[in-house]
Every structure is written in C-alpha cells, then in structure tokens.
Amino acid sequence: PAFFSPRSGVRSPAIVRSGEEVAQQYWSARELGLECGMLVAVPPPHAGDGGAGEEVEAAIQTALREAAAEVTGRDVTPYVLARVAELTGGASLAANVALVKRNAEVGAEIAVALQAARGAATDRAAPEVLVLGGSIVDITARPAPGADLVLRTSSPGRVFSSDGGVARNVAEALGRLGTSALLHTALGDDRRGRDLAARLEDVGVGVVAGAGAGTTTATCIAVLDGAGDLHVSVADLGILEAGPRWPVPSDEALCDAGLLVVDTNPGPQGLLPAVRAAVRAGVDVVLEPTSVPRAAEAAQDTELMGCIRYATPNADELLAMAGGKTRGPLRGDGGEDDAALLRDAAGVVLA
User: Fold this and answer.
1) pLDDT tens digits for 291-339?
2) Which of 12, 80, 81, 341 is the most exposed place for a label (fewest CB within 10 A)?
3) SS3 4
4) In 122-244, at which residue ranges do the beta strands (DSSP E only) sit?
C-alpha cells in the first residue's frame, strides 16, 4: 500500500493476514540467526474499496506537482498539507486519523503475538544439558578493502561484533540443534550482558548469570590490519579472572539433566561446587579445557578431575593435562609417533 491508498504500484514481497503470522516469521528468522529486520506495511482502513484513501493520494500527487512550481525547502511540507486539505475538503485529516488508529491496532496485535510466541518458545521442557563457563563479546575492526590502518587517527573500515566464550558457544550450538540447554555463566551488569543473554534466549537457551553491581561483561576488541592479521587487541576479562561467584546448577535442574558441560574459565574453585553437585545427582560431567594453561591448571586439581566423566582437549591441551609426563613434544605430522604420544598422554590423564 501507499500511505493513504491500498495500491501503490509496488508489488509486496510477502503478505501476512494476522499478527500471529508476523510473529511466526519474525521468530523463525531469529532462530535461523538472520539479522534482517521486518517492515510491515498496513493498508489504510476500508482498503478494499479505495474510497477516501485514493482521493487523498490523488490530492497529494496534485499538491506535490504544484509545490514543485511554487515553493522550495522547508515551505514544501506546510504547503502540501494545506493544499491537500483544501483539495479533499478535509477528508485528508479524517483519513490520517483513521490510519493512525489502524496502525496502533495492528501494532498492538503484533506486539501481543510476538510476546505470546516468545513465551511459547521459552516455556520449554526442563533442560537436557546444563552448561557452565565463560561468555565473551568479541568486537573486531578492520580497514576498508584495499586500505590499511592509519595510526594515531581514525581509519575508515568496518566494525562488527559477535558472541563468544566456549561455554556460550556450546550452549548456542545445542539450542540451534533443538536440544534444550541452560547456560550458567558470568555476565556483567551492563547492556552487552543483557543483549548476549537475550540472543541466547532467542534460540531457545536459558541463561542463569552471576554478576555483581558495576561489573562489565567480558569483552575482547581486536583491530586487524589491511591483510586481515591481528594488529592489536585489548581484552577486558576481569569478570572471568577476578573469580566471580559462578552460578551453581540447582538440584531441580540436575535431576532432569543428562549432562553437565563445563569449560575451564571459572578455574577449579569456580567449577568444584557445580561438579560436586552433579556427581551427587548422578549427572555425567564433560570438561572442555579451553586453552593450554587452563588445561594444565584443571589437571592439577585431583578432586576436580575425579568428578570428570569425559574431556574434549585438543592435542596440545591433552599434553598439558599430562603435565610433561610423556616422551617429547608433538612432531605435528599426524604420524604414528604423534599417535603414540597422545595415547601415552591420555593414559596419564585417565590414570
């Protein structure tokens, strides 16, 4: 539709008949990770028979043609409004009021449908998998194509952000695969933390966040050069390194869950209350070591390792968990020597 007329001559790419259809399409796009918005064009009241709407639209076109020959700049709008009212005998005001009311009705219908659909999405069954660990907002900047960084001043380019953190990534992947998951993490008392949690909830992942007043969500800013290589990075990880009070899965959640997945961002002291609770509830614990230093730190805590049922280290993390009790470094060629070394390291960790 045009503003006052049900017909504009421009073909609509899609047609919906109700607020429920709008909500369904909106949430489907969010679940697929699409970042596009939606523009809903509302036909004026009594769009089926045209009537006053088309009369007003015709008057607008006439007034615009006259204005082009009569006035310029800021005088155009008041001229057009006055001329349209004159040409329609006041019908334009009545049509405008009716359209405003109709927009409010449709907007309210869509808002109610969006909330109802979101409620249905979040009113999910008890989580099958509990996840505990870090959440980070990654912000990356790089110069425009063909350009390079200009130091000590601003450089034209592109800045984009994404959500990270091993535990958060695991939880999002589970949600997108249709597995109900509940993430326990540390988020700051800020907009970035609230937005990160909302994006997880949009894909069906619940969030239990531990945060204190005045804290900031873990954030890493990376500036790349023209070749896409890292030039400089600043990481604000204080909320992870300062030992926040990491949330512990509730007994109720543990009773229904089949698995607890933890990363090593909380450190052994942050993980122990959760893994102890999981062991008491008979829930298997999966450890994702996250990094070589974190892997080595976790492996040195015998109580923590005694609670772990499965671990998912890469080759370097596995060697770190073995604590140097293996014969030499990896050659990196994927040969039998490397395979034997990794078997030895696994044996040390499992002993």
Assistant:
1) 899 999 999 999 999 999 999 998 889 988 988 766 667 767 677 777 8
2) 12
3) coil
4) 129-132, 136-143, 157-164, 181-186, 205-210, 219-224, 230-236
